[in-house]
Amino acid sequence: MLYRSKKGNTAHGQLLTLSMASACLLVASCSNDNSAANVDDAELSSLVTAAGLTGDPTTGRTLPDVTDAKAKLGKKLFYSKGLGGDDDSACVTCHHPSLGGGDDLSMSIGVGAEMPDLLGPGRFHDTAAVGYDGSPPVPRNAPTTFNIALWDQALFHDGRVESIGKTAGKNGDDGSGIRTPDSAFGVADPDAGSTLTAAQSRFPITSPEEMRGFIFQVGNTNAELRTALEVKLTNSGWGTHFAMAYGDSAVTHQRIAEAIGEFERSQVFVDSPWKAYVEGDKTAISESAKRGATMFFSSIGDGGANCTSCHAGDFFTDEQYHVLATPQIGRGEGDGSSGNDDFGRFRESNVAADMYRFRTATLLNVEVTGPWGHAGAYTELENMVRHMLNPAEAIANYDFNQLDPNAGIQSGDMLINAQLALGQLEANRTNKVSGVHQNVEFTEDDVTDLVEFLKALTDPCVKDRSCLAPWIPQGMGSGPDGLKLDAVDSTGALL
User: Fold this and answer.
1) pTM of the model
2) Which of 99, 364, 417, 443 is 20 to 30 A (C-alpha) from 241?
3) Does 190 sit behind a cis peptide bond, omega within 30 degrees of 0 on the bond before it?
4) pLDDT tens readout for residues 437-473
């Protein structure tokens, strides 16, 4: 059931075929939808060709398999609370495969949860935890780890881990290096490693709210923290596991980050109905999805939504930064007069034009990677689509009831902060900034069609627990230190 570009996956392909067949039965026929005019496949194909799509974003890339030795070690580390300073959080706390490679929360709760192994809805911050104030402590939505290997330029919403010299089709260093929060803006971090994922993996453990906690190595540098983790893992028996991947038992943080990065890079899920359509199966998606695709790929002048101005290529992102004015809920990053705003890319670049810009998200598997927006303000995909079509209108009609009332999410200044972001968007429009986001006239049928197209970008594997099994450890309580996170949902069922 593994899709890997190196080794292939017959079972995964069979699952895709069966899932599409089931979907067709539900609508009587994938190619017959009488609710609106059918799409001319030749015309849609011409739009696809003009967009330069092949259907497969993995082309030309060398990707690890989840069964590779380093990825297997990374999987064990990814699920270990031993990397957390308080032994109560792991990488998987915010990035579980069964939760779309994220945590299905608007904003994450890392350390100090009431129940450390309960992930997703129902995970709450313990009232006795350090820093508890009733609201989730992590200020941004957790990005998915699915298809993280396909990012070439940057990771995180603000791109604070980025390749200084981007090479298309290569995840990481092209010889110019990778900048991280440990180095100045525009300056390569000599310890970043050779891939963006390895570089990124070095930082959740340094965040007090995410994994480090507020006691472990408090006041020490990131380098000292990482050295302390090396000692901690060595003393708890991890050496033999590192030997299986590296040939000797040395536990170094470079190896920790590389192994976790390789496990994350193995999470490639691109076998979607849309891929099948682009590759020639014109019955792979519904007529509604075809109408949505036509709108997606067409310019505004041609009656479309011009989505490809940002969501470009087979990975559906230009990897650039844009002002979208998605609602700012939660505690923010400490910006603005209220201290609960988030200035996005500006926080990294200190360039005025980057105010309120955030990285363009990939749309592959977007159906399962919500909530959406840098702060997770939209909990229904159709609401995120409405925002993309007209941000000001969506904010004016924002339904605060979509937020979990038990999560304590701060939202009192949302409209104030949103107006500031909208002001930046309007200024960019007035100044004719290149690639600025534009409003689109739309109907509710358009929203339905666009959502159906977005759902066609979902690899069926990410919605099938048995297909995801290779990325989820089997059994309870394994691991050399006994700190494996055995993830459960709010009912107590294993994820």
Assistant:
1) 0.91
2) 99
3) no
4) 999 999 999 999 999 999 999 999 999 999 999 999 9
